[in-house]
C-alpha cells in the first residue's frame, strides 16, 4: 500500500489528536481539519521534532509541554476594540437595551489574552453600567487566562488600540485606562473588579452562566460545522430570552441548524438575538 505525504500527515494528525485526548483530555477531533493540520505542523517546527509522530511522543511523555501545545493549537491572538464597528454597535445599540436589566451578566467565551474583556469593561464603564455587570471571561488555555488576568501588553500596540477605541466611539483617551512603563502597558486593574476569569472548554464543558450577552468572536472559525452547532446550542441554553450573541466578523450563523432560534440584530456586525428559547436543557 502506498501512502503519499499528505495522507501520511493526515494519519499522524489523527493520531496526535487521539494522543491529546487520551493523555490530557483535550478533544480537538472536531476542529476544522485544514487549519488544525497547519497548526500541528507549526508545532512540529516550534518544538523541533522531525515529524508529527515525534510530537506525539512528546505529548505522551512531556506533560510540562502541554500549555505550550495548547497555545500553539488554539491561537490566542486578539486586540483591544478589534473590529471597532462591532464595539460601536454594542455601545450604541446593545448597551442601551441591556441597561433595562438590574443586573447584567456577560459571558466572553474564548477571551485569549483578555484584550476584549478590558475593551468591554471600558464600554460598560463609559455607559455607566459597569457597577451592575458581571463579566465571565473563559478560555480553554490556562496560560492565556493567566496573561489575561495580568493585563500587561507590549506598548507598541498602544497607537493601533487607541485608533480602534476612537473608531469604536470612545470619548476619552485610551491612555486614561492604562499606565505605560518601559515598553509595556498595564491596563488599570480596576477594570477587572467585576470580571471572573475561568477555564472552560467549549467542546466538553456545559452552560456557563445565565447571560444577557455572549461574545464568542474568532473562536468558532476554527471549528467544524457540527462543533459550531454544539457551541451555539450552549450559547442558546445560556442566554436569557432576548439576549445577544456576538460572533466574529468572518463568522456567521447561516449554516447552523441552531440558527433558527437566533435573529440577526445587526447582521453586518454579526450581532444576533435569541428570539425563541426552547426548554432549558443540559448541553
Ligand atoms: C483567535 S482567539 C480569539 C480572541 C478574541 N475572542 C478575539 O476575537 O479577539 C481564539 C481563542 O479561542 C480559544 N479557544 C479555542 N478553542 C477553545 C475551546 N474549545 N474552548 C474555549 N476556548 C477555546 C483559544 O484558546 C483562543 O484564546
Automatic annotation (TrEMBL):
Residues 1-263 form the CheR-type methyltransferase domain. SUPFAM superfamilies: Chemotaxis receptor methyltransferase CheR, N-terminal domain, S-adenosyl-L-methionine-dependent methyltransferases. It holds the Pfam family CheR. InterPro entries: Bact_Chemotaxis_MeTrfase, CheR_C, CheR_MeTrfase, CheR_N, SAM-dependent_MTases_sf. PROSITE patterns: CHER (PS50123). SMART domains: MeTrc. It comes from the Bacteria. This is Protein-glutamate O-methyltransferase CheR.
Amino acid at each position: 500500500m502506498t501512502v503519499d505525504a499528505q495522507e501520511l500527515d493526515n494519519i499522524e494528525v489523527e493520531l496526535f489528536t487521539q494522543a491529546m485526548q487520551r493523555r490530557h483530555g483535550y478533544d480537538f477531533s472536531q476542529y476544522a481539519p485544514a487549519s488544525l493540520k497547519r497548526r500541528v505542523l507549526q508545532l512540529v517546527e516550534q518544538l523541533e521534532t522531525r515529524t508529527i509522530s515525534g510530537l506525539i511522543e512528546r505529548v505522551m511523555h512531556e506533560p510540562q509541554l502541554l500549555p505550550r501545545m495548547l497555545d500553539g493549537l488554539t491561537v490566542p491572538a486578539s486586540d483591544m476594540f478589534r473590529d471597532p464597528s462591532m464595539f460601536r454597535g454594542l455601545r450604541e445599540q446593545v448597551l442601551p437595551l441591556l441597561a433595562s436589566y438590574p443586573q447584567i451578566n456577560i459571558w466572553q467565551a474564548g477571551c485569549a489574552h483578555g484584550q476584549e474583556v478590558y475593551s468591554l469593561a471600558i464600554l460598560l464603564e463609559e455607559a455607566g453600567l459597569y457597577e451592575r455587570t458581571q463579566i465571565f471571561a473563559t478560555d480553554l488555555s490556562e496560560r492565556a487566562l493567566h496573561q489575561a488576568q495580568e493585563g500587561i501588553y507590549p506598548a507598541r500596540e498602544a497607537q493601533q488600540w487607541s485608533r480602534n477605541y476612537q473608531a469604536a466611539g470612545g470619548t476619552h483617551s485610551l491612555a486614561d485606562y492604562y499606565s505605560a512603563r518601559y515598553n509595556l502597558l498595564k491596563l488599570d486593574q480596576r477594570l477587572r473588579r467585576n470580571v471572573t476569569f475561568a477555564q472552560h472548554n467549549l467542546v466538553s464543558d456545559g452552560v456557563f452562566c445565565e447571560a444577557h450577552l455572549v461574545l464568542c468572536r474568532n473562536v468558532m472559525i476554527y471549528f467544524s460545522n457540527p462543533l459550531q452547532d454544539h457551541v451555539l446550542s450552549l450559547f442558546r441554553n445560556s442566554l436569557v430570552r432576548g439576549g445577544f450573541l456576538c460572533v466574529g466578523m468572518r463568522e456567521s450563523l447561516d449554516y447552523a441548524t441552531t440558527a433558527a432560534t437566533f435573529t440577526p440584530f445587526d447582521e453586518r456586525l454579526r450581532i444576533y438575538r435569541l428570539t425563541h428559547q426552547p426548554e432549558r436543557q443540559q448541553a
